[in-house]
Amino acid sequence: MNAAQDPEHAHTGRRGYRIGTLLAIVLTILPFWLVMDGVLDRTTTVVLIFAMALVQIVVHVVCFLHLDTRAEGGWSLLAFLFTAVIAVLTIGGSIWIMYHLNTNMMPMGG
Amino acid sequence: MSGATSDETPIVWHVSEDEDHGAGHSGPTALGFWIYLMSDALIFASLFAMYGVVSTSYAGGPVPSEIFDLKLVAINTALLLASSITFGEAMPHMEAGRVGPMRAWLVATGLLGAAFLGVELYEFHHLINEGAGPQRSAFLSAFFALVGTHGAHVFFGLIWMVVLLVQTMQHGLIEPMKRRVMCLSMFWHFLDIIWIGVFTFVYLLGVLR
């Protein structure tokens, strides 16, 4: 364990890292198991794997990239939240709009 | 605070009342590199958006459940997650200045990353041989663009890792080396985060369709 530069930060950082590692492994195995063994119906599985992916992304960002409200005086968090909003708008908006364009305007079924 | 950034010019990129945040890995480089990672995340966001829009445009070609081998993807996911964990193991050694153990963990990370890339290239080769190359349908074009961009990031991360292994051998763990290793660790964890989106949105959802 590193205690040379900042004992308190290093200590909580390592503990968070261990917890993050365990959570990441569980949150990776579970969705693969759900899909490969097909234990639940399709809709439930889709909702669950997306929920677990979102949780795992947060776990990785907090435990591995050490993002918190204090990092860089909050600017890291601000940049992350801004990026998350843009990503949700880009991905969600594109799929939403193009889905409706497809269903409303392309009767040839391509 | 910790003196970790004493070789830097005293530019302050954060609001002044928070000056005492000085944890080991801060300084202007950390924030600057973080902003870069966020802009890279936006590149991937647009690739994910493109994939999402055309993910069912098969053009009469193969559908995901026919061509995706989830066992292979599970192996690849395990390799990349393991490499993220081994990089995390290198960090306390880096912060304490123990160059030997840090380089050993970096080598482990690099080997796992190279194995990931090898499996991915095998998968791409297999798909193209099966007639499921990027020119077959919009779905496959978007698939190769998204997964290929991630793979290219892993490839350049590996080059970066080799460079750092050589540089730490030549110079030891001097302050600029610590900063570079810190940036690469952020980059590597970031790539694993993108992969969470890839295996969920592309592979698992594709097989469920």
Notable characteristics:
A: 110 residues, mainly alpha, 0% strand, B: 209 residues, Four Helix Bundle (Hemerythrin (Met), subunit A), 6 helices
Note down, in words, how this protein is organized.
By secondary structure, chain A is mainly alpha-helical. Chain A folds into two domains: about 1-65; about 70-110. Helix content of chain A is about 75%, strand content about 0%. Chain A contains three helices and no strands. The termini of chain A are far apart. The model of chain A is unreliable at about 1-5 (pLDDT under 50). The longest helix of chain B has about 35 residues, at about 140-170. In chain B, about 75% of the residues lie in helices and about 0% in strands. With about 210 residues, chain B is mainly α. Chain B has a single domain (about 35-209), classed as Up-down Bundle (Four Helix Bundle (Hemerythrin (Met), subunit A)), CATH 1.20.120.80. Chain B starts with about 25 loop residues before the first helix and ends with a helix. At the A-B interface, helix 1, helix 2 and helix 3 of A face helix 1, helix 3 and helix 6 of B. Chain A: GO terms for molecular function: cytochrome bo3 ubiquinol oxidase activity; proton transmembrane transporter activity. Chain A: Keywords: Cell membrane, Electron transport, Membrane, Oxidoreductase, Transmembrane, Transmembrane helix, Transport.
Main beta-sheet strand count, sense and barrel state of chain B: none
Number of helices, where a helix is a run of at least 4 consecutive DSSP H or I residues of chain B: 6
CATH superfamily of chain B, by name, is Cytochrome c oxidase, subunit III, four-helix bundle
Q: Work out the helicity level of chain B.
A: over 70%
Note the run of SSEs of chain A as H and E: HHH
Low-confidence spans of chain B: pLDDT under 50, at least 5 residues? 17-25
Largest interface: A-B, 51 and 58 residues
Level-2 CATH architecture of chain B: Up-down Bundle
Number of domains of chain B: 1
Fraction in beta strands of chain A: under 5%
CATH topology of chain B: Four Helix Bundle (Hemerythrin (Met), subunit A)
| Topology pattern of chain B, helix = H, strand = E | HHHHHH
What level of helicity do the residues of chain A show?
over 70%
Give the class of chain B from helix and strand content and strand pairing: mainly alpha
* Average pLDDT level of chain A: 86
